[in-house]
Amino acid sequence: MTPRQWAYFDTSVLVKRYVKEAGSGPTRRLLQRFRFLSSSITPVEAISALSRQRASGDLAPRDFLAIRSRLHKDRAYWELVEAGDPVLRQAEELVQKTNMRALDALHLASALVFQSASGLTIPFITSDTKQRDAAHILALTVIWVE
Fold it and tell me: Total domain count for the chain?
């Protein structure tokens, strides 16, 4: 059995795994197809997004607790790129060159650093339009989830 290929999942897509919204079906299929790779900031960013949904009333408190528990269990299967010096330096360069948002730069830098260190070319999966556009500029292979 051939191991599944890595793919970098942005938080915008990961949240669709836990909250039923546009793109949830394709996200689940992508998570079955690829090994999960993301930034070490992803768990914090995901909980933040889910907390905002809870605060706005879009997510019931009971559902939030169940999703949070599932997310913590799923982390055992994730590979997270540490937001250490190489990623931070790369992100800083990206922000200066492209004027992108800090969290987008950290995600894109994490994918670039992983590719450089591993020698692998991996897809970058996102549902964030600004991040998609920046990933294209950086010549990353993008899988867009609407």
Answer: 1
